[in-house]
Every structure is written in structure tokens, then in C-alpha cells.
Amino acid sequence: MKIDNIENKRNILRMLINSGINITPPLLDFILLLDNPIEIINQIIKETSFIPSFKSHLTENFLKKIPNKEIKKSLERILIKKEVHIIEDNSNKKGVLNQNQICNLIDVKKKTLEQERKTQVKNLEFTVKSSILEEHDNNNIKANSINKDRVKSIESTNSFFIFKPIAKEYSAQIKILKDPTGKIYTNGKYEDFYDLTLDKFSRLKKLMRKRTEAHSADNINNILRLSSKVAVSVIGMVNEIRKTKNNNFILTLEDLTGLVNVIIRKDSDNQENIKITERTLNDQVVYIEGTYNPGEKGKKGIIYCNYISKIDIPRDHKPNKSHDPLSVALISDTHIGSKEFEEKLWNRFIAFLKGKIGNKNQRDKAGTIKYIIINGDLVDGIGVYPKQKSDLAISDIYEQFKKAKEILSEVPDHIKILYSSGNHEPVRNALPRPAVPKKYSEELINIGVTCIGNPSIVQTHNVNTLVYHGDSILDLNQLIPGLDNNKPIDTMKELLKCRHLAPIYGGKTQIAPINKDWLVIDKVPDIFHTGHVHINGIGYYNNIALVNSGCFQSQTEFMNSLGIHPTPGILSIIDLKTLKGTQLDLKISI
Question: CB atoms < 10 A from the CB of 118, how many?
Fold first, then answer.
């Protein structure tokens, strides 16, 4: 073999190994005969990444599936040339083949592909060993004493890749910082509703006072006593919002001392205030600066607003990060038991976690996953929505959990699973929700799954993840202009700005009347994880990583009636050391 071919062969093997692609020796020889083999192999690597059925084993037959015309023509040219030489050698004749002979050669080649595929694994071992020996010979190194472990591993796995997940080397570090399970009781009396609202206002007001400009805010009763125009500032909960015929906004604010009207004029100086007001809902707490005009003849005064703000997340928020090279996979809405449960995509997820699919970078990423957080709707449940029974493949709730245990058992043992309840689980629908009761989840607990309520805050290797299924996302998308079910990250930002997971009371989102509001975001998270809308999304807000984890369920008739077009099988992974997110579409990426 020429020196150039040896070098090309070595470079091609390195490129394929780094891309997670296996190749048969005959096909490698074919590619080496091309005019520019390095360029062709780059094209092949690029093209195979877009073919869902590609399983990392490159054969001549698979190359024919690649839509790249240059690759197809090159392959056809090489195959014909090779068969021409064979005929010439066998017949000992010189001359040119006719068209019929060429067609026969192509048919013969097709019939040999199946046999070649069967011997692929054996040939693959030979290729790797030969490659190792060639490289060491060229560098005058004795191969026998250096690569025994590598060759042995290749022989035992029949693969270029020895999957050694780094996450396996680290012990799990899990702390449940917030979980409503066992702490949520209510009698449904008037006092319970009052206590909930009082707790919500008091805690949100306390958060607002952490803002420098809000330190001097006065209570409403003191402002109403003023008898002349004066600059004032106030913290209040929005009792009502209405628009005047001149497109000005009037907000009625209340605190524990009274109510006051605030007018926000739509003029050139108030454009930013108008934008904030348009995205403000009843029951949110805001801070207002303006000029108070006392009322005449017994009428109440009004505040003319110069500035309005929500509590928000500090722009200089410094999130916690892990010192270890680990990551968390965030999923939700698998809906096991539904006819639309995407089990094939789930099986690809398991294969990814085990390092059986994906290129080198993707396998390295899989090896860092130490935790999986399932954010609700693991099972499809029973009687959750009208005519659900027709959508069910498993119509018994216990059998749904049995199936859930079966598929979660396939997750590698070194990965720890946390499972939070959603609106399809057999728990109460009103927020906050407790963890799924043990009578349903016992088999999951027995295989090491940690069951938690919703919302919860989970700390993994020093990083705090706020886990909230996301029931209120649909409410906000209907009430706030510009928000869209297909863009859940924008809605998640609004929840962070008002520091509450269900800011409006009385919408479709059910909220239990209890003496503590578990939906206040008083502790700023490092990761904010939602689900529910079945639309995958990933983004950032003031250094917080935001993930809506999509689903593993195709569209049901009920989802179609809500206008939801799901994005199943898109996996979100957050690196705990950097908080950088990665998305992998299990349908096409790996």
C-alpha cells in the first residue's frame, strides 16, 4: 500500500471513530480509491447525521441511501471498476465490457451486501486491530505491549467505543430543599382562603423590599391621608386592571391598609411602563412610583404613575454550580399507558444513556448524566379528561405504574431518578400537589426512584432545580399578549419576573386554600424546569437555565382540541458544572 493511502486510512479511521461510525474493511478500501477520500468521508459523516435509521455501521448498501449525488456517483463508479477487474481476471480477456455485463455486475454486488453485513462485526475487529498495529509500526513501538486492553475491550463489545460513563465514578448528592408532601392541609373555609392570600402578599412584599428603590415605599392608608400633591411610592397587590377609552390603564392596588387607584398614561414618556402593565395580571405584586393627587369633595385620591416594576430576578444573580463534570437530564409527560406513548423514542433514550447510540461527543455527554428529573405525567392516569378511555392502551392505573417501573428499570443503575407529580398522576389536582402515594409508586421506590411533590426544589451536586409541572403556563398564555404555547420559555420568564408560579387566582389552574403559599418563588433557582405543554424549549434568564422538557407522547385528540402540537423525543440536558444546556432530538440527532 502506498504511503499516501496508509496516511489517508489512518486519518479516515480517526475521523470515523470520533464521529461514532463503524466501517467494514472492503468499504474502507473503496473509499481510499476515490479521488479525494478525506473530503468524501467528511460528506458521509455530515449526511449520516441526518438519517434517523443510521445505526453507526457504515456499509455500501447504507451509502446508497445518502441523498448526496457526488457520494452516490463515486460509489457506483468504484463498484463497477472493481467488478470489471474481477471479470477481466477470470476471463483473461482484454477489451471493454458491454452494457449488459455492467448491469449484471451491479446485480451481483447487491446480492453480496447481505452476506457482507453478517460478517461486519468480525471484519470490524480486524480493521481496528490492523489500524492499531500499523500506527505502532510506523512509530517503531511494539504493539503487543501497549494496546492489549484496548483490543480486548473491542473484542468483548464488538465496537470502537468502550463506554465508561464518568458519572459512575461519583456518588449521588441529593437534597430535597422544598417539598409540599405531608405539609398541605385545608378545611376549605373562608379563613383558609384569607390566610393563603395574606401569606402570598406578605412574602412577595418582603421580596420586593429587597429592591433598593422600594425601601421607602409607604402603605396605602398613609398615602390616602395626604392633602396635597406629593411624590409617593407604594407596594401593592393588583386588585383590578382596566383600560380607559383613551387607552390609559387604571390599576387598583391594595395592601393590608386599603386600596388606591393608579393611572398609567399612554404617552411617549410612559412606553416602558405600558409594556409592563400590559403583562401584569390580577393578584400580582408591583411597585409604583408617582405623584399622588388628593381627591376633591370627599373623593379618593389617585396616583399618577411614573414608574412600575415587578419583583423580578436580580440581574447580577450568581447561580450555584457543581465542581464535578456531571449533568442532569430533564424530562416530563411520558404518559405511559396512553396509546400515543412514544415507546420507540423512549427506547432510544435508554440506548443513549447506555452509550449504545450516538457519536463520540454524544456518548461523552451521556456518560456525564448522573440524574434524571421527571417533571410530572409519568403515567397517563385514568379519567383525567373527557373520553380519555379511548386514548388508553393501559386502562388500569396500577398496570400503568407497573409499566412505568418496567421501563425505568432500564435506566443504568448509576443514574438517580427523581419523579415529581403532575396533573395526570393519582393525586389531587389542586396545587401544590403531594408526591404520588406509595400504594401506586411502591414499585418505583423499590428500584430507587425518589418521589417528590410539585412544586419542589431539588439540590443535586450543589445546583438547585425548581421543579414545577407548569399548569399555569396555559393560563398566562391566554391572558398576556404575545405569549404562545409554542414558546414556553417566554412564559417561564414571566413567572420568574412576578416570583410566583401561578400568579393569578381563579383561572383554570386550581390552587388549594392553605395557610402557606407554596407557589411563591422566594428562593432563586439555578435551573427552572417545567413541562405540561408538551413543547420543548431551553433558554436563560438572568443566569438561570430554563427548560420546558417537552414530552414522550404524540398528539392526542384532546391536545389537538387545545391547539397543542407536541414535540416528543427532544432531550434536554443541563451541565451542572457550567449550567449550559444541550438538546438532542432522539428522532434525528443520534
Answer: 8
Q: Render pLDDT for 42-95 as a digit per residue (tens, 0 to 9).
A: 777 766 655 555 656 777 666 666 655 556 666 666 555 555 455 445 544 444
**CA atoms of 105 and 109, how far apart (whole Å):** 6
- 348-363 burial, b at 16+ Cβ within 10 Å, e below that, comes to bbbbbbebbbbbeebb
**Which residue type does 486 have?**
N
212-309 folds as OB fold (Dihydrolipoamide Acetyltransferase, E2P) (2.40.50)
List of residues 6+ apart from 259 with CB closer than 8 A: 220, 239, 252, 253
What is the pTM assigned to this prediction? 0.74
Backbone phi and psi for residue 59, each to the nearest 5 degrees, phi listed first: -130, 165
What is d(CA 401, CA 403) in angstroms, rounded to the nearest whole number? Answer: 5
Give the Cα separation of 315 and 113 in Å (integer). 60
Q: What's the CATH architecture for 320-585? A: 4-Layer Sandwich (3.60)
Q: What is the Cα–Cα distance from 522 to 464, expressed in whole angstroms?
A: 13
Tell me, what amino acid is at 61? Answer: N
Cell numbers at residue 263, please?
A: 393611572
Torsion of CA 233, 239, 244, 247, to 10 degrees: 70
Q: Hey, which of 7-11, 103-107, 388-392 has the most confident mean pLDDT?
A: 388-392
